[in-house]
Amino acid sequence: MSTIHKALYDNVPQDQQSPAVERFSDEYGRQVSYLRLSVTDRCNLRCMYCWTCDGLSFIPHTKILTYEEMLRLVDAAVSLGVEKVRLTGGEPFVRKGFLYLVESLAKRHPSLDVRITTNATLLAGKVAALRDLGVRYVNVSLDTFDRERFQKVTGRDMLRQVRRALDEVLEHQIGLKLNAVALRGFNDDELPVFLNFARRNPVDVRFIEFMPMGGCTRWREENFWSAKDILSQAGDYANLIPVQGRTRRSGPAKLYDIEGGKGRFGLITPLSDHFCKSCNRLRITPDGRLRTCLFSDKEYRLRPVIRHPKLGMEAARKIMQLAALRKPLGYRMLEHLHADGSVAEKRMSAIGG
Question: Which residue stretches of 53-185 are H helix?
Answer without folding.
Answer: 67-79, 98-108, 127-132, 147-154, 159-171
